[in-house]
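Hi R.,

Here's the chain you asked about this morning:
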Amino acid sequence: MTLKKVIGFIVIILVITIGVFAFNQSSKRATEESLQSETVVKQESSEVEIVVKQVISSYLKSPGSAQYPELVIKKSITEENQYVAFGDVDSQNTFGGLMRSHFFLKIIDKGGEAQNINNWTVDSLDLGDLILVSNGKPYDTPLSISDLSVEARMMQKQIEDFYRELK
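And here is the predicted structure, written out as tokens:
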């Protein structure tokens, strides 16, 4: 082998080694950024999950018995602070029997501490037989969650009164 071939071979090996090293560093940095991003999404998702469960539970006869075997939460890609949640909730009914209800909930983050339920607005809710319409307001009128809890109790009382009249 001539000296030129040896030097050329060494240069090629050096270029390949530098390229592999640079690629590994870039890949490692991208992986770290991806993991950090996933951590933020998971943390955000768990905070939203807490709010979703609080909202749904506020409409149940026995909120303490609520279990969520199927719960999917998606962040809106068109609206910055809007989330959609859907799935199933199992809870006890008036007679103590376990009942499964399907739900669909759209909520809006008004900002502030995510786990504070007052920082959220319910845009729409469909829970089993309950479709939320607030005192004649249009269906898409945002309501505060505290208003929903009051309204849920009023609706529950009306239903109980209706059943008492039937007896």
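One quick note: Confidence is low (pLDDT under 50) at residues 34-42, 134-142.

Cheers,
M.
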